[in-house]
Give the backbone structure.
Amino acid sequence: MSTSENTERPAPPTDSQLEAVREDILALLKQPDYDDGSAGPVLVRLAWHSAGTYDKDTDTGGSNGAGMRYPYEGEDPANAGLEHARLFLEVVKKKHPWITYSDLWTLAGVVAVKAMGGPDVPWQGGRTDFVDDSKLPPRGRLPDAAQGADHLRHIFNRMGFNDQEIVALSGAHNLGRCHIDRSGFDGAWVNSPTRFSNQYFRLIRNLEWKPKVLTNGVKQFTYYDEDTETELMMLPTDLAINQDPSMEPWVAAYAEDKDRFYADFAAVFGKLLELGIKRDSATGHILNTDNEKGG
Ligand code: HIF
């Protein structure tokens, strides 16, 4: 599946070139006809799924290569719905062809988090779209929401994350919603799903979540707020972090301290987007481009 496009090391973009890309991502976030009126959440999910295939032991997967452009990764049922995110970003790619898809998808997640009221997630460019066949991730590396804390450890330890980092990351489920035709789960975690906050942790702790079996047989958890007549949801994995003895204290900490959550989320989401990217520590320039492999 090697591709010859983008095999040359591009000149690093100027600050104003990058700024123009950020502006154009910002401009497309408002989508009156899509979900809750925003492309933001699905862009955050795209950024995470592009990076979250990483395996530290074999140094395979990760955002380099933008593998979701191709059917094996792009049509993985775990990535259902992310074609919307990729399509939203296509106009930006057309306007700024110099940026790689792998940089664009990760940057879009960072811009979206910030625009929705979240922290500044550190981001550096330089990813390559060269598909290195020896680095392709197999399917099955993304988490299964029907499982528990041990599964989360299995998945996220493989990327190099510890319990605290798993909980901090999980706060991103403050954003967006589940779609029955994508994951089989249904609904939003919080009442304002396009506003980043630590509400997700507070709701996990403070509401009484009841199991619910959807018409498709999928099991999730539900809370019906009679005052506002809204139904919120949690995935089995969302509630699992509040039951695990080593993760639960972090859920409590982030429910109480928004600033701490923001700082820890920024650090861990930034780390996620860098998985598998090797940089010169002095210059920040990327080392593992295609060129070293002979393109
Ligand atoms: Fe999600 N996630 N995620 N997720 N996720 C969904 C949606 C979003 C898991 C499962 C699901 C993370 C971890 C995990 C976002 C961001 C992040 C959906 C619903 C499922 C089932 C998809 C759909 O039907 O459209 C599991 C099991 C995870 C391991 C804990 C990350 C931490 C929370 C890493 C992360 O950043 C976002 C944003 C969405 C909403 C997408 C949307 O289209 O609105």
